[in-house]
């Protein structure tokens, strides 16, 4: 099994197979427009622009599961990303990424790349951990996605290689991406 065994609907409602990305290095990330990590859209777009000609794709999956930080419609999400961050990478429709209604892709990703903790050197690391412990303690259980902007790097064969928590900036993926391209 690999990420190519999954399908998802683009933000414009077209169902596609992730097999369309066979042979590419992928960064799969759950996103939100009203989050402290939302500025990572800028870093994700920069990463995409830097590596897209070398076979790298960024796939964004907006989710409203984390303190309702993605309340808009798919159209509103798309417009927000394009207007505020110039996003040109592929966005998908709003998706659950954890719990019983999670998209199977995210169940697969979190199974293959377990949670290893937040980067506590990140300015928001301790704040995020404290907020989760206080308000959403169940989010810290198991390997599920913990918050917006959890990033997964997938190699050209569809294997999950690495997981980067929200407390990792997109640029921190450069080294692993360069090894895979």
Automatic annotation (TrEMBL):
Thioredoxin domain: which residues?
Answer: 1-181
The answer, when asked if Oxidoreductase is one of the entry's keywords, is yes
Any Pfam family: GSHPx
Kindly state which keywords UniProt assigns to this record, in alphabetical order: Oxidoreductase, Peroxidase
Tell me which domain of life the UniProt entry assigns to the organism this sequence originates from.
Bacteria
Q: Which InterPro entries match?
A: Glutathione_peroxidase (IPR000889), GPX_AS (IPR029759), GPX_CS (IPR029760), Thioredoxin-like_sf (IPR036249), Thioredoxin_domain (IPR013766)
Please state which protein family the record places this protein in.
Answer: Belongs to the glutathione peroxidase family.
Listed name of the protein: Glutathione peroxidase
**Biological source species:** Clostridium folliculivorans
């Amino acid at each position: 099994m690999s990420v190519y065994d999954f399908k998802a609907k683009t933000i414009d409602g077209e169902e596609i197979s992730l097999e369309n990305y066979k042979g590419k290095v992928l960064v799969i990330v759950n996103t939100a427009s009203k989050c402290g990590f939302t500025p990572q859209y800028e870093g994700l777009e920069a990463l995409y622009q830097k590596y897209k000609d070398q076979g790298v794709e960024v796939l964004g999956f907006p989710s409203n599961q984390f303190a309702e930080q993605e309340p808009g419609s798919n159209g509103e999400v798309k417009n927000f990303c394009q207007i505020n961050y110039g996003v040109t990478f592929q966005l998908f429709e709003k998706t659950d990424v954890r719990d019983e209604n999670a998209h199977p892709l995210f169940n697969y990703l979190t199974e293959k790349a377990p949670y290893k903790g937040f980067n506590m050197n990140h300015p928001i690391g301790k704040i995020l951990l404290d907020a989760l412990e206080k308000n959403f303690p169940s989010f810290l259980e198991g390997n599920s996605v913990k918050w917006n902007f959890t990033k997964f790097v997938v190699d050209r064969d569809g294997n999950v290689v690495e997981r980067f928590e929200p407390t990792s900036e997109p640029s921190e993926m450069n080294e692993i991406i360069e090894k895979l391209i």
